[in-house]
Write a structure and sequence with these properties.
It is a single chain. The chain has four helices and two strands. By secondary structure, it is of the alpha+beta class. The chain has one domain: 2-keto-3-deoxy-galactonokinase, C-terminal domain (Nucleotidyltransferase, domain 5). It has a two-stranded parallel sheet with strand order 1-2. Helix 3 links the parallel strand 1 and strand 2. The longest helix is centred in the first third of the chain and has 21 residues. 7% of the residues are buried.
């Protein structure tokens, strides 16, 4: 990314998106390799709705199938803790 910026091929504003795309691509590739031959190349996703949508799009573009389990896991986790805590 630094080299692209130095040679004027990537603007400073586009840097974060570029890095995010590299990370998503790397993680999707690893997930699809792990899913190969089982679960119909299905990758289960949890997380922020915006990121889940990006991952799902990348998975589909690579021939996989994304299954969204929970969009906001932090809220779900806090709710579970609240239900199980003995509040006194």
């Amino acid at each position: 990314m630094r080299t692209l910026g130095l040679f004027g091929e990537l603007s400073e504003q586009a840097g974060a998106g570029f890095l995010s795309g590299l990370l998503i691509g790397h993680e999707v590739r690893a997930a699809l390799q792990a899913a190969r031959g089982r679960d119909e190349n299905r990758v289960r996703l949890i997380g922020d709705a915006t990121l889940v949508a990006l991952y799902a799009e990348a998975i589909a573009a690579c021939g996989g199938r994304a299954e969204v389990l929970v969009l906001d896991m932090a809220a779900a986790g806090l709710a579970l803790i609240g239900r199980q805590a003995a509040w006194r």
